[in-house]
TrEMBL record:
Entry's transmembrane regions: none
Positions of the Peptidase S9 prolyl oligopeptidase catalytic domain: 493-693
The keyword Hydrolase is annotated on this UniProt entry: yes
Domain Peptidase S9A N-terminal span(s) in chain numbering: 9-407
Entry protein name: Prolyl oligopeptidase family serine peptidase
Pfam families assigned: Peptidase_S9 (PF00326), Peptidase_S9_N (PF02897)
Keywords noted in UniProt: Hydrolase, Protease, Serine protease
């Protein structure tokens, strides 16, 4: 068998494809794009599919989700007339009307035209508490790197550096408000200012009107760390500044910065998640932690008095304890309450906790607890926004695989006896006919006996049929039930079944679900996905020839492993913005930051297990692969497009047919606007329909 499994980078004939914008590499990209697009977009059906998906993405009936800043609700909106988007705001009362009169703050399309730049909105951080200024971030083509400009919200214009405005050139910067005229900033200021992962190594306190490179340093990380960070909690009466570093993707060393410049370390486990809010320090464990003689399991949430903790006290209370089926997905504060988002076999529940007045009341049960109703089974309920500085208002979004989103508002504890009634502010339309469509959850058995959940969305037929399946399995990211107009209209309503596999490496069952597939245990995530594929066939839901799969980023790596280790299980594979060359991932863009997840390729012991699955090194001329489509983005500055390019080049060298599409912009998301998103998903779905037989011509 001819294989590249033992090849090192010195033997790689395709390193030239890592030259992102090199003439030779881009010429190769244009040739591959032309070949594949000529084959996949040459029918009226493709045009209809693309236009139908674009109608979903651009629909005026979509929910304009908002975020409260002071008295106003802010929204960023994209549609067919404004593909780059509008930043705008309105009042709650006007929003309730159903047809609000939006006050336009910034038209990104107009800005891009005026400045002849391919601007993509990357967010804005408004200055608390007056919200009259914002630090706006703009990306060229959707890259992670952004330019930063201070924006005067009242005058609706950017402030120049000559006016004292905070401005930064393109970089992977970190910037946040300290006070009206000061920010914490980490940015690319030349050698030594960034880590090997490409993120800020040095954090500074930058005063308005002064050169950023002369701003005093408040914290420095190591060059091999992922990044440094700094921030300020400006809550009245609890003002604190925090600085720290992330030695790797899963650990943090954090300090409270005192007024005299001294630092007090938060002595929580390095791999724990911490949150300081007013008097409270919350610690969510990611590995077992012994406190005051009691060992707490991974995924436990503990509460401490923050100043007491910094002084050495370990008096605490348990706010959440995980079980085999129950995990803590996250939490949010309002002014008076703590809201826990809990997953129970991957379905969401919300719990509202009322904290005691102080640590002297921390006897068992002093944090009052109640459940906030979340509706139907297999629903996802997300806390979209709170206003913890001012009120107990919360905004919620509820949806499910067959249930369009509902955007609602309530105020916790509005009366002495109860919360305010849940007020539906918007309901999204249904973009596809769900008649006869069911949502079922099954459990497959992985190679080591672990039960792996997965969702099946489609018509409950006695006959097997085309299935499109996805998974991720990394970085403790959970795939929860959610409504997709694109997948519904483009796949399920055309007769296909959609499957979501909740494999290890994700966070569906808490930190241990993630850590059980880290580094040398990575193979478990791949075994889980393969187990789900087999289970679908055993249940008669599909056949290998009718089973298509797709995944992006770490999910793209998952797809690459499926191609090279389990090709017989699938009829088609779509690999999107992927990692594939695990021998060199740490040398490309942000790859060095992911070594805690995958291992260190330059360490022989780590390479011994990484090399067992690295897809690029395991391609073979003699193998029989399913139909393949690989996509990426030239402007992806997180996962290098060289992974996808080289993988396709080697497949072609070995004589295997493969379709390829590289969008010239779009960043790690693969698309910069709705037109590009619709085109990309139409490409994916059309490819799968042709490969596994969904919907006749």
């Amino acid at each position: 068998m001819t294989s590249s499994a033992d090849a090192s980078e010195t033997d790689d004939p395709y390193l030239w494809l890592e030259d992102v914008t090199g003439d030779e590499a881009l010429s190769w990209v244009r040739e591959r794009n032309a070949e594949s697009l000529g084959r996949l977009t040459d029918t009226e059906r493709f045009g209809d599919l693309r236009d139908g998906l674009r109608a979903v993405l651009d629909s005026d009936d979509r929910i304009p989700y908002t975020r409260r800043r002071g008295e106003l609700l802010y929204n960023f909106w994209q549609d067919g007339e404004h593909p780059r988007g509008l930043w705008r705001r309105t009042t709650l009362d006007d929003y309730r009307s159903g047809d609000p009169s939006w006050e336009l703050l910034l038209d990104v399309d107009a800005l891009a035209r005026d400045e002849d730049e391919n601007w993509v909105w990357a967010g804005a951080s408004a200055r608390w508490p007056d919200y009259t200024r914002a630090l706006v971030q703009l990306s060229r083509g959707g890259a992670d790197a952004t330019v930063v400009r201070e924006f005067d919200i009242e005058e609706k214009r950017f402030l120049t550096a000559d006016e004292g405005g905070f401005t930064l050139p393109e970089a992977k910067s970190r910037i946040s408000w300290v006070d009206d005229d000061t920010v914490f900033v980490g940015t690319d200021l030349g050698p030594g200012s960034m880590t090997t992962s490409g993120y800020p190594r040095v954090m500074r306190r930058w005063s308005r009107g002064t050169p950023v490179d002369e701003a005093p340093v408040v914290f420095e990380a190591e060059a091999t760390d992922v990044a440094a960070f700094a921030g300020k909690d400006r809550t009245r009466g609890f003002e604190r500044e925090m600085v720290g570093r992330s030695p790797d993707f899963h650990t943090v060393e954090e300090f409270v910065l005192r007024e005299d410049g001294s630092r007090v370390r938060i002595e929580a486990p390095a791999d724990a998640d911490t949150d300081i809010d007013r008097a409270w320090l919350l610690v969510r464990t990611r590995s077992p932690w012994t406190v005051s003689g009691t060992e707490y399991a991974a995924g436990t949430l503990l509460a401490f008095d923050v100043e007491g903790f910094l002084a050495g006290s370990r008096e605490h209370t348990v706010l959440f304890a995980p079980t085999a089926s129950r995990s803590l997905s996250g939490w949010s504060w309002t002014k008076s309450y703590l809201i826990l988002t809990v997953l129970e076999d991957v379905a969401t529940r919300l719990e509202v906790l009322t904290p005691p007045a102080g640590p002297e009341q921390w006897a068992a049960g002093d944090w009052a607890r109640r459940e906030l109703p979340t509706g139907e089974a297999f629903a996802e309920v997300a806390v979209v926004g709170t206003d913890p500085d001012e009120s107990d208002e919360i905004f919620l979004d509820t949806d499910g695989f067959t249930r369009p989103s509902t955007f609602a508002r309530t105020v916790l504890g509005a009366t002495a006896d109860d919360d305010a009634p849940l007020e539906t502010l918007r309901s999204a339309p249904s973009f596809w006919d769900t008649t006869g469509v069911t949502v079922r959850q099954f459990f497959a058995t992985s190679d080591d006996g672990t039960k792996v959940p997965y969702f099946v969305v489609g018509k409950d037929s006695a006959e097997s049929g085309p299935v499109l399946m996805t998974g991720y399995g990394g970085f403790e990211i959970s795939l929860t039930p959610s409504y997709s107009g694109v997948m519904g209209r483009g796949w399920i309503s055309q007769g296909g079944t959609y499957v979501v596999a909740n494999i290890r490496g994700g966070g569906e069952y808490g930190p241990e679900w993630h850590t059980s597939a880290l580094r040398e245990h990575r193979h478990r995530a791949y075994e889980d996905f393969a187990a789900v594929a087999r289970d679908l066939v055993e249940r008669g839901i599909t056949t290998p020839g009718q089973l298509a799969i797709h995944g992006g980023s770490n999910g793209g790596l998952l797809m690459g492993v499926m191609i090279t280790r389990y090709p017989e299980l699938f009829g088609a594979v779509v690999v999107m913005v992927p990692l594939l060359d695990m021998r060199r991932f740490h040398l490309l863009l942000a790859g060095a930051s992911w070594q805690a997840e995958y291992g260190e390729p330059d360490n022989p012991d780590d390479w011994a297990f990484i090399s067992q699955y690295s897809p690029y090194q395991h391609l073979s001329a003699d193998a029989r692969y399913p139909a393949l489509l690989v996509t990426t983005s030239t402007r992806d500055d997180r996962v290098h497009p060289g992974h996808a390019r080289k993988f396709v080049a080697r497949l072609r060298e070995y004589g295997h047919p493969v379709e390829y599409y590289e969008n010239v912009e779009g960043g790690h998301g693969g698309a910069a606007d709705n037109a590009q998103r619709a085109f990309q998903w139409a490409l994916v779905l059309e490819f799968c329909r042709r490969a596994v037989g969904n919907a006749p011509e």
